[in-house]
Amino acid sequence: MLQSVDSSVRARILEQALGLFAERGVSGTSLSSIAQAAGISKPTLVYHFGSKEGLRSAVLNQVMEHWQAEVPRLMVAAASGGPRLDSLLNAFFEYFQSDRNRARVLVREMLDRPVEMRTLLAQHLQPWTRLMTEAIRLGQGSGLLRPQADPESYTVLVICSALSLVAVGPDASALISPEPTLADQRVELVRIARTALLNPPQQES
Question: Could you tell me if residue 116 is inside a domain?
Answer without folding.
Answer: yes
